[in-house]
Every structure is written in structure tokens, then in C-alpha cells.
From TrEMBL:
Sequence intervals crossing the membrane: 90-111
Species in which this protein is naturally found: Quiscalus mexicanus
Family per record: Belongs to the 1-acyl-sn-glycerol-3-phosphate acyltransferase family.
Designated name of the protein: GPAT3 acyltransferase
Gene responsible for this protein: Gpat3_1
Stretches for region Disordered: 1-27
Length: 390
């Protein structure tokens, strides 16, 4: 707070103003009236060329500040946390602030980073060795118990390596065996955050390198579901294997992130319906990080995994809240998409996140032409319905 006040009042030269949180006060002010009502009020008379300015304004709004691409960059902070100011480069304000920032760099890089790196190495090594040893045991209750002990212990070491402070709420709703846990996705460490409080069967693609070694070791002790790249493209095969897992009530709950990509801790985007076609009980979980202590969001288009891990391991801490929501089942009159949207809405409400209908795949892909055409048809229908086109 002191640093923020100094930034606001102590600058000798006027500094460029940084936009406040886009989710609260955007760059531009939009009307909250739905488009259909706006056009109905606008076109009470015959069509005039000036009416096209309505669509021009909407277009400019989308170009200046659309509600999708801003979800794929770090959220802006209202106060400085002595780290970089998220999306804005560092500006010199005063010698006093600069000295405080330099001291923070020394503490984070010279003291915290070596300690955290040592803990991470211990946690990863223990995970590989422990699961490999447990994997040699015959299947049974003893193996399952020891596997859970190894996973929980190693996950808690890894959370300590991030200086993680996690608050779990409503633990009576924790996912049970034979169920499916779905959560919003901000970071690769989401899985460690959840595993710190309970064991899950992970679902994902087979990797190489260190991640591949960990996957091959853990699958020997725990029924994780790893897919080859060719299998991931076969949705029916994936669904079949997940159904077989859920049908066995003795197996750990499956952990799935239906968004399919990391979103910047401000919103929840479209849930893919595949996770909700499997059947079984869905256990929603809402995860919300506190950005005052460190930015947990992984912008995979800007940072590789090594750079990202270095950033979070040199932050002050990883602080977050985890809410276990009551279990949900699919209603008879619901399809998979409707069920997914209902679960997404519950997670967004509990986590204080903005609910968006857009596909997280837009992080790397352009909007499909079919979607553009659909919007154009909707505009035409609204114009014709209001008597604007003869």
C-alpha cells in the first residue's frame, strides 16, 4: 500500500496512466442494454445510413478491448507487489522505491530461489523413486494406501517449494472415488494445489523428458490415464477409457480441466462437453489465486514451462483459495452442453470469476468463419424484424 501511494503521489513527472482492472472498469464504457433492445430502439423509423454507426461502434469496441484476448494475458493489479507490474514495464519513480525493489530481488533470487529449487528437486525425486518402488507391489489395498501416501507427501513438498498458502473450503464436498473432479484452469500447478489435499487420477497426453519420466513412474503406482498423441485425437477412445475408469468405484476420482487451456484467473471460459458425456457424479472445484503475492497464470504463448516455473519460484508466494462445491449429476432433460454450462456457472459464482461462453482454443486459433456467419445472420434477422430493411 505504501508503494502504491508513493507511485500515485510521489512522482515528480506525470506517468502514463495504467488502465484499471479490465473486468471492473474497462478501457471503454459499454452500454449494458442487450443488442436486440438497442436495435429495437434505434430502428423505430425507416432505415437510414446513420444506423450503420451502431455496428461501427460495436466493431470498435471489440477491436479496442474484446472480452476474449485479455483473458490470455496477466491480470492487471490495483497495487504494486514489488514484482514487475504485470503487463507494464518498470518505471523509475524514486530512489527509495528502487532500493526496496532491489532488496526484494536479492531476497527472492538469492535466498528463496535456492531453497525452493532444493525442495522441488527433493519432491520430484521422491515422487519418481517412491512411485517406482510402490509400483512393484502386487495390486491391493496396501499398494493403494502407499500410493496415496507417496502422492500426498510429494505434492505437499512441491507446494512448499512454491511457498504455497492454500485455503480449502467446504471439505465435506471433496471428490469421492468413482467420480469426476472438474475445475477452472489457471496454471499447471493447479493439479499440485488439488493433490495437496487429496489424491486424483490424472488425465493427459504422454510427454517426453522429465515430465515423461514422472508419468511413467506414477502410472505404475496409481491408475492415471495417459494418452498417446494419436489417441487424444480419437474422442471415442478417450471417452471409452474414462468410462471404464469411472465404472470402477475403487479407483481414485478423475481430475479434468474442461477449459483445455490456462485462463488468467479472472474468468471461466467454455467447458468442453467431453468430460460431461462420461456419466457419473461431477464434483466441481473453484480455484482462485491471490495476485498480490505472485502471478500464477501461465501464458504459454509467451513463456515456456522453464521460464514460467522460474517466474513463480521467484515470486513472493502462491496464495489461493479452493472451494469444493456440492456434487452435481446430469438431469434427464439436459444434454452434455447444458450440463457443462451449469457446472461452469456454479464454479464462476463461487470463485468470483467472470463467466464467458467463448472457447479457450481462441488462445491459439482464429474465430471460425461459420461463427462469423452466424453472427451476421443474427444481425440481419434483428434488422428485418424491426422493419429496417424493406
Amino acid at each position: 500500500q505504501w508503494a502504491t501511494i508513493r507511485l500515485q503521489k510521489g512522482a515528480k513527472k506525470p506517468q502514463p496512466q495504467v488502465p484499471r482492472t479490465p473486468t471492473a472498469n474497462g478501457i471503454i464504457e459499454r452500454d449494458e442494454t442487450p443488442m436486440e433492445k438497442e436495435i429495437a430502439l434505434l430502428h423505430r423509423a425507416d432505415f437510414e445510413f446513420s444506423h450503420i454507426f451502431y455496428f461501427c461502434r460495436k466493431g470498435f469496441e471489440a477491436i479496442v478491448e474484446d472480452e476474449v484476448t485479455q483473458r490470455f494475458s496477466s491480470e492487471e493489479l490495483l497495487s504494486w507487489n514489488l514484482l514487475t507490474r504485470t503487463n507494464v514495464n518498470f518505471h523509475y519513480i524514486s530512489l527509495r522505491l528502487t532500493v526496496v525493489w532491489v532488496i526484494g530481488v536479492v531476497v527472492r533470487y538469492c535466498f528463496l530461489l535456492p531453497l525452493r529449487f532444493s525442495l522441488a528437486a527433493i519432491g520430484i525425486t521422491s515422487m519418481i523413486v517412491g512411485t517406482t518402488v510402490v509400483g512393484q507391489l502386487p495390486n491391493g489395498s496396501v499398494k493403494n494406501y502407499l500410493s496415496e501416501v507417496v502422492h500426498l507427501t510429494c505434492s505437499r513438498i512441491l507446494v512448499r517449494a512454491l511457498s504455497g498458502t492454500i485455503h480449502y473450503h467446504n471439505k465435506e464436498n471433496r471428490p469421492q472415488k468413482g467420480g469426476i473432479c472438474v475445475a477452472n484452469h489457471t496454471s499447471p500447478i493447479d493439479a499440485i494445489i488439488l493433490t495437496n489435499d487429496g489424491c486424483y487420477a490424472m488425465v493427459g497426453q504422454v510427454h517426453g523428458g522429465l515430465m515423461g519420466i514422472i508419468q511413467r513412474a506414477t502410472v505404475k503406482a496409481c491408475p492415471h490415464v495417459w494418452f498417446e498423441r494419436s489417441e487424444m485425437k480419437d474422442r471415442h477412445l478417450v471417452t471409452k477409457r474414462l468410462r471404464e475408469h469411472v465404472a470402477d468405484k475403487s479407483k481414485l476420482p478423475i481430475l479434468i480441466f474442461p477449459e483445455g487451456t490456462c485462463i488468467n484467473n479472472t474468468s471461466v471460459m467454455m467447458f468442453k462437453k467431453g468430460s460431461f458425456e462420461i456419466g457419473g457424479t461431477i464434483y466441481p472445484v473453484a480455484i482462485k489465486y491471490d495476485p498480490q503475492f505472485g502471478d500464477a497464470f501461465w501464458n504459454s504463448s509467451k513463456y515456456n514451462i522453464v521460464s514460467y516455473l522460474l517466474r513463480i519460484m521467484t515470486s513472493w508466494a502462491i496464495v489461493c483459495n479452493v472451494w469444493y462445491l456440492p456434487p452435481m449429476v446430469r438431469k434427464e432433460d439436459e444434454d452434455a452442453v447444458q450440463f457443462a454450462n451449469r457446472v461452469k456457472s456454479a464454479i464462476a459464482r463461487q470463485g468470483g470469476l467472470t463467466e464467458l461462453p467463448w472457447d479457450g482454443g481462441l488462445k491459439r486459433a482464429k474465430v471460425k468463419d461459420t461463427f462469423k456467419e452466424e453472427q451476421q445472420k443474427n444481425y440481419s434477422k434483428m434488422l428485418v424484424r424491426n422493419g429496417s430493411v424493406g
